[in-house]
Design goal:
alpha/beta; six-stranded parallel β-sheet; 28 helices; 19 strands; magnesium; transketolase; metal-binding
């Protein structure tokens, strides 16, 4: 048993936290000094003041309901719950201690709520982490990942064995320093950058609501699962969480339940120094149901009651604020920043073992705890088997709907889907590639069941509306146009959640290309977590004209070409736009970015959907023997300029090859033989043209080549004037080419 005096401290600290967060006047409380807690030596007068403060401030929160503990009966013997919770704590403590690196404080504080979720509430199959109708869990506070690894280990997931826990944060392990869905089966999304996870959870919950509305029948409910998340103060401070949670409230995502780990500690100390807003009232204003669990350390029934209440609220998401003590059980480091991001240290680990009455060796899970958790393997198998039988009956009764849902579940695209993409000839009318993109989007939505998406309040300018469908809203969740409002960062992260919900869900999202600056964090997580989101980015250059340099991307293309596992497309016309979409739809583990023009462009001779698949390909060439006098290379709107310059040079007797470099990353994947056929190593006379930064083009044109671009910010003027003033012209290409002769 834990010592009474030491545990009294943790309860006193909890009382302080309740007082601290329960008041609308948090700024009037003394700031936390950042010093370690004083253990059992805390004075009686100090505890009395804490208790008095708690009683004084408790009445100041009339809007937020505390969990109704009297209505819930415990589902498990309390002694095994205590033991199980401490197993989670000490697996985290031991792993961090062995690695000499990590974040033990969150797992120690969140163990009770996490235990109840994984052991008593969530529906999952440990032996099939990808069962479609499982409940999803997101640890938005990803630094506390040992909490999640401990849960997966106890629940029987093959991906996290005892040896994996011992290899925490080591090279090649299944237990990296933050949760990574591509490394560890059982991890739904990659988290770590704070706020991304809760936004991903909104996307997961959106996907469930959408699919349930589309496919469930009065006599057959085949889509029915919850999304749970744990987020901390850091997530709450990041703006992305507010963007995403605003949308969650607007959309009425009733099966999203988020636990707010309210421990009032961040890396710099007490959150009093920078974070004093009333989170409860903010979430109520966002349209969430809010519950407050005042004792997150030992109040198991309060947590159970809160979850029960949250599930009863079906028309809005729920935030359960759980007041906890970070590093609970540590006599000298609990409730301090020192337990947030560093190992406890050998002496403090021993003191914590003594404090919590834990006689077991490092990484040892008591036999009765193992036995208790072992039931999840057969129970999970039964859950999946029952669902499979239900789906089989659904398939017989509703074969067409079942075929669509199966496509979404498996990611297997309908046969011949790519034939729906439009094709163009040089005689087809010229158009802006943003308009040509809209034709592709609408064609794809008719044949790809999981295709959905929207824009950050720019649908009429990005040209992203699906004309055959209405808007996904609270009352119409079966529709496929997503209205994100002016929330680019939240939009990207929500799209990641949609993409990672099911292999056949293919989300796209859109804004002006320059505003990727607002969503780059989410786009990087797309690439890292292998979420095949399609980013439709219009107004791709100075060609947008009068809006000026605030809206004209310059360095953006180069920056995304530098991002791993990202396809950066800049199509020149209709065929290349269709080709980009064909690749983007099939690349389910790689995000694609399409940079699209505002200005009208011609349909060029020689472009093709098939050529785009190679990344770089020849659109015209009058040379022989793979030895042109010069190679002109362009992308997007500047491919036309390269083609026109080639005609000028050919009239002067030069042999010229024109190459479209629509996607560098795809070209890099081609064989050496193919690359040599496009860019022969013997031809050093190469000129590139792109209305963007020239950074990186040296890789393509070589040491003797010339790159025409823009290495300054743009300006406000009509597009033709800008192209002339910045030297993005046929004449500039011709002059550069002639410098080789």
């Amino acid at each position: 048993m834990a010592s009474t005096s030491s545990l009294a401290l943790s309860q006193a600290l909890l009382a302080r936290a309740i007082s601290h967060h329960g008041s609308d006047q948090r700024g009037s409380l003394p700031a936390f000094t950042g010093l370690k807690s004083t253990g059992s030596r805390a004075s009686v007068s100090s505890r009395r003041r804490i208790a008095q403060s708690m009683n004084k401030n408790r009445s100041l929160r009339p809007l937020v309901r505390a969990a109704a503990v009297e209505t819930v009966e415990p589902t498990t013997d309390s002694s095994i719950v205590d033991k199980s919770v401490n197993s989670i704590r000490f697996l985290a403590i031991d792993a961090v201690e062995k690695a000499k690196s990590g974040h033990p404080g969150l797992p120690m504080g969140c163990a009770p709520m996490a235990h109840i979720l994984y052991d008593e509430v969530m529906r999952y199959n440990p032996k099939n982490p990808y069962w479609f109708n499982r409940d999803r869990f997101v640890l938005s506070a990803g630094h506390g990942c040992m909490l999640l690894y401990a849960l997966l280990h106890l629940a029987g997931y093959d991906s996290v064995q005892e040896e994996d826990l011992k290899q925490f944060r080591q090279w090649g392990s299944k237990t990296p320093g933050h949760p990574e869905n591509f490394e560890t089966p059982g991890i739904e999304v990659t988290t770590g950058p704070l706020g991304q996870g809760i936004a991903n959870a909104v996307g997961l919950a959106l996907a469930e609501k959408h699919l349930a509305a589309r496919f469930n029948k009065p006599d057959a409910e085949v889509v029915d699962h919850y999304t749970y998340a744990i987020l901390g103060d850091g997530c709450q401070m990041e703006g992305i969480s507010n963007e995403a949670c605003s949308l969650a409230g607007h959309w009425g995502l009733g099966k999203l339940i988020a636990f707010y780990d309210d421990n009032h500690i961040s890396i710099d100390g007490d959150t009093e120094i920078a974070f004093t807003e009333n989170v409860d009232q903010r979430f109520e204003a966002l349209g969430w149901h809010v519950i407050w669990v005042k004792n997150g350390n030992t109040g198991y029934d309060e947590i159970r009651a809160a979850i029960k209440e949250a599930k009863a609220v079906t028309d809005k998401p729920t935030l359960i604020k759980v007041t906890t003590t970070i590093g609970y059980g540590s006599p000298n480091k609990a409730n301090s920043y020192s337990v947030h991001g560093a190992a406890l240290g050998e002496k403090e680990v021993e003191a914590t073992r003594n404090n919590l009455g834990w006689p077991y060796e490092p990484f040892q899970v008591p036999d009765d705890v193992k036995s208790h958790w072992s039931r999840h393997t057969p129970e999970g198998a039964t859950l999946e088997s029952d669902w499979s039988a239900k789906f089989a009956a659904y398939e017989k009764k509703y074969p067409e709907d079942a075929a669509e849902l199966k496509s979404i579940i498996t990611g297997e695209l309908p046969a011949g889907w790519e034939k729906a993409l439009p094709t163009y000839t040089p005689e087809s009318p010229g158009d802006a590639t943003r308009n040509l993109s809209q034709q592709c989007l609408n064609a794809l939505a008719k044949v790809v069941p999981g295709f959905l998406g929207g824009s950050a309040d720019l649908a009429s300018s990005n040209m992203t509306l699906l004309k055959a469908f209405g808007d996904f809203q609270k009352a119409t969740p079966e529709e496929r146009n997503l209205r994100f409002g002016v929330r680019e960062h939240g939009m990207g992260a929500i799209s990641n959640g949609i993409a990672l919900h099911s292999p056949g869900l293919i989300p796209y999202c859109a804004t002006f290309f320059v505003f990727t600056d607002y969503m780059r964090g989410a786009m990087r997580i797309s690439a890292l977590s292998e979420a095949g989101v399609i980013y439709v980015m219009t107004h791709d250059s100075i060609g947008l004209g009068e809006d000026g340099p605030t809206h004209q991307p310059i360095e953006h293309i180069a920056s995304f070409r530098a991002m791993p596992n990202t396809l950066m497309f800049r199509p020149a016309d209709g065929n290349e736009t269709a080709g980009a979409y064909k690749i983007a739809v099939t690349k389910r583990k790689t995000p694609s970015i399409l940079a699209l023009s505002r200005q009208k462009l011609p349909q060029l001779p020689g472009t093709s959907i098939e050529g785009v698949e190679k990344g770089g390909y020849t659109i015209s060439d009058d040379s022989s023997g793979n030895k042109p006098d010069v190679i002109l290379i362009g992308t997007g709107s500047e491919l036309e300029i390269a083609a026109q310059a080639a005609e000028v040079l050919r009239k002067e007797g030069k042999t010229v090859r024109v190459v479209s470099f629509v996607c560098w990353e795809l070209f890099d994947e081609q064989s050496d033989e193919y690359k040599e056929s496009v860019l022969p190593s013997d031809v050093s006379a190469r000129v590139s043209i792109e209305a963007a930064s020239t950074f990186g083009w040296g890789k393509i044109v070589g040491g003797k080549g010339k790159s025409i671009g823009i290495n300054s910010f743009g300006a406000s003027a009509p597009a033709p004037i800008l192209y002339k003033e910045f030297g993005i012209t046929v004449e500039a290409v011709v002059d550069a080419a002639k410098s080789f002769f």
